[in-house]
Amino acid sequence: MARRPNWRAIRIHRSYSVDEAARALGVAKVTVRRWIASGGLPVIDDCKPTLILGAELSAFVKGKRAPRHKLRLDQCYCMRCHAPKGAALCEAELIPAKGASAMVRMLCETCAAVMHKRVSWKQVSQLSALVRLSGAQRVKHLGETTQPCVNDHCQKEV
Ligand SMILES: [Zn+2]
Question: Does domain 7-64 have CATH number 1.10.10?
Fold first, then answer.
């Protein structure tokens, strides 16, 4: 995958020649000329050398950026595949974290790399309908329970 030009390198209140724009963005001059020739990147008319407004250059480069991957609840972003991936064998492990969220760990369905993502406890119940979740359940904060604290996780005597 080609490196995407960084629009943050562009000052919107100045204008750029093709050469300056190429250098600021770290792309070839011919790339900037291609953007102009395609009609996508407007230039200041009747001007030699060709000048591009920083604001228009910035907007153009921003527009070129690939859209962010939207993950489904049962997907994680696989760093090895560079894509959203589902869980291998539809299995995921829940790792309790502090606060209102938990970590979910799953293996990539394609390359089996370990993937993580943070989910809220509200999402955990929805997620458990989509994948087999293993791991710890949420430990309730004392203030959230109306029941007195009992050792009910101990095996009941028969
Ligand atoms: Zn993968």
Answer: yes
